[in-house]
Design brief:
293 residues; alpha/beta; seven-stranded mixed β-sheet; two-stranded antiparallel ribbon; 12 helices; 47% helix; globular
Length: 293
């Protein structure tokens, strides 16, 4: 592990002891710094908001993007809590709504469907500390091997969990689900055209994975939507476990995927500043269509 990674981890270990209001204020300050310095990500966020909210004036979209960066700064700095704080402290700052223990009782394997809001990693912690059923997920490996290992340890430290690199074949994941392990599924990033369909997302055709529908149908899974929210100031977090979907999956994975995107849109409209706007959601285009970025 190089010195830079050691210093970063030491800093995160120290700041996790701060009171939540102080940590939140520092995170928002980090977000303002990122807004000023991370010009490429700033442009991506503004372009995404232009595509998704054309009805808003340019200054409104810019205000929304600036607010988003402050939530982004908080999400980065508050990983210190998720990676190092005790389960007891995390239970005090995470509010859970809905049936967090569905996977414990279900006779079928459960798919937690979790879009990319800023509190995404809080939802991952919630399913580990508020219920006792084994879970699994996929993750994007980091180019920095030391940081990759740190992230893995942070996500696995409470036990009864497995994570599989997205670059690996799906067979180990499928075997785990067939054993009854719940799947923490992140369905809303652009991974290209492979195993995806172009379906509307805020009226724009977006390459969206068909896997949630296909896996749920093939493995006879119960799909439970989960939304994580970061609360203002030092109030902590809220994770909402919704009622299991009765309309998903069907025998039409493309229609299912479009319906999933409509649900994500509805949730974003409730809390638009906390969605992951710095990701190139519309990077992959249908054949012959020019780049939107």
């Amino acid at each position: 592990m190089n010195m830079g990674t050691r210093l970063l981890l030491g800093f995160l270990w120290l700041v996790q002891w701060l009171p939540m209001p102080v940590l939140a204020a520092l995170g928002r300050a980090l977000g303002r710094l990122l807004w000023a310095l991370a010009s490429s990500r700033r442009k991506i966020a503004l372009r995404n908001l232009e595509l998704c909210f054309p009805e808003l004036a340019a200054d409104e979209r810019r205000r929304l993007a600036r607010e988003h960066f402050q939530w982004l700064g908080r999400s980065i700095l508050e990983r210190s809590l998720l990676w190092f704080a005790s389960a007891e402290r995390l239970k005090r700052v995470i509010q859970v709504e809905g049936d967090v223990k569905l996977a414990e009782r279900s006779k079928k394997p459960v798919m937690w469907l979790v879009p990319h809001f800023m509190g995404l990693d809080v939802a991952g912690v919630a399913v580990l500390i508020f219920q006792n059923h084994e879970g699994c997920s996929m993750y994007q490996e980091q180019s920095n091997a030391a940081m990759n290992e740190v992230i893995r340890r942070g996500r696995l430290r409470f036990g009864h969990a497995q994570i599989f690199p997205r670059s690996d074949k799906a067979l180990p994941l499928i075997r785990a689900i067939r054993r009854g392990v719940a799947f923490f599924n992140l369905p809303d990033m652009d991974f290209g055209e492979r195993d995806a369909a172009f379906v509307p997302f805020f009226g724009v055709q977006a390459a969206t994975l068909l896997a949630p529908s296909r896996m749920a149908r093939a493995l006879d899974m119960v799909v439970q939507p989960v939304i994580a929210e970061m609360l203002p100031g030092g109030q902590g977090y809220k994770v909402r476990f919704g009622e299991p979907w009765t309309h998903f999956p069907t025998d039409d994975p493309v229609a299912d995927t479009a319906a999933m995107n409509r649900w994500i849109e509805e949730e974003i409209r409730k809390n638009p500043a906390q969605y992951l706007w710095v990701h190139k959601r519309f990077k992959t285009r249908p054949a012959g269509e020019a780049s939107l970025y």
